[in-house]
Amino acid sequence: MPAPALTPRRLLPILAALTAAALAAGCASRVVVQDEPPRRPLTTSSLPAPTPPQPVPAVRPLDRPYAWNQSPSRLKVGGPPPPAAASAPATARPATHVAAAPGQRTHVVAPGDTLYGLSRRYHVSMDALMATNRMRSPVIKPGDTLVLPR
Question: What values do phi and psi take at 46, rounded to 5?
């Protein structure tokens, strides 16, 4: 014979008896059991009406795929990578090499160095560093040699 289903109406007397026994034994301080009214089942009539789907705007196909990203001539499947351009300069900025005069100190830029950090380390202003090295931008790269102002 299958066990009877445990419904809230069957559990309520069991919980009341357990609570009374726990209180009598001093195991529980205060337990409040409230009998809730049965909840109304969820039906489709109680749900809000669905909103109609919004039209999706048409997307115009690109005339040239990847035109916005890179030229189609660079899009090749397989094969070796394209050779580097021989006419490309090694550095993008103009050469600002300044020869150090006798008695002037120099600093070779290491990875992580900044012009601001070097100006604080050697107690000179950034403007003085830039003027001494004929720099137009405070951007430095590892391996650059900077002449420190006197």
Answer: -90, -5
CATH architecture assignment, domain 100-150: Roll (3.10)
Q: What are phi and psi of 23, to 5 degrees?
A: -70, -40
Question: Which alpha helices (DSSP H) does the chain contain, by range?
Answer: 8-25, 115-121, 126-132
pLDDT of 58-112, one tens digit each?
776 655 555 455 555 555 566 666 666 555 555 444 445 677 788 888 999 999 9
- Type of residue found at 21: A
Q: For residue 34, what is the enclosing H or E element?
A: none
Mean pLDDT of the chain: 74
Please choose, from the candidates 106, 115, 108, 110, the residue with its C-alpha nearest in 3D space to the C-alpha of residue 138. Answer: 115
Maximal CA-CA distance, the chain: 107
Q: How many helices (H) and strands (E) does the chain have?
A: 3, 2
Which position has the token pair 């069991």?
14
CA–CA gap between residue 148 and residue 118 (Å, rounded): 9
Q: Does the pTM of the predicted model rise above 0.70?
A: no
